[in-house]
Amino acid sequence: MTSAPAIGFEYAPSRGWGRACAGMTLLAAAAGWLSALPWWCALALTAALAVALPPTWRAWRQPPIRSAGRAADGGWTLRDAHCADTPATLLSSRALGDCLWLRLQPTSGAAVNLLLAPDNSDADLRRRLRMRLAAAC
Fold first, then answer.
1. Are 50 and 37 in contact (CB under 8 A)?
2. Order of strands, sheet of 112-116, starting from the edge strand that comes earlier in the sequence
């Protein structure tokens, strides 16, 4: 049996996931106003959400990782915004419907979450990654 070829892909954040997070933030603000909280608590909650949303949104829209790759031997490589390649290890993976969630730990730095959804990756890539990840277990 021949070895499986490497898989490489460009990474861009999912627009749908970002919109869902923004919608949940609006629902959290509405819940504060519709609950039995005093008006000043609801106002403080809304202000806290309004302050927290823009930096979180920017961090989501500008991920530190530009591309990722899985070698035939099962090793992972991450490429950052400065085009520097960093080896990484797979901490966990989850298949959520049509989405695939990868958590990778580079040799330097914090762990990275990659969400491969229908709006930021093709179905064939997600299918091949799922097969490789299932075979590795």
1. no
2. 7-10, 65-70, 76-80, 85-96, 99-106, 112-116
Note the pLDDT tens digit of each residue in 43-66: 999 999 999 988 888 877 888 889
- What's the CA gap between 3 and 1, in Å, rounded? 7
Q: Single out the residue of 59, 5, 53 nearest to residue 25, CA to CA.
A: 53
Cross-strand pairs, 70: 7, 76
Structure-token pair, residue 54: 């823009």
Helices (H), 10-38: 15-34
Using an 8 Å Cβ cutoff, are 73 and 7 in contact?
A: no
102: its two tokens? 């990868």
pTM of the model: 0.77
- In eight-state DSSP terms, residue 74 is S
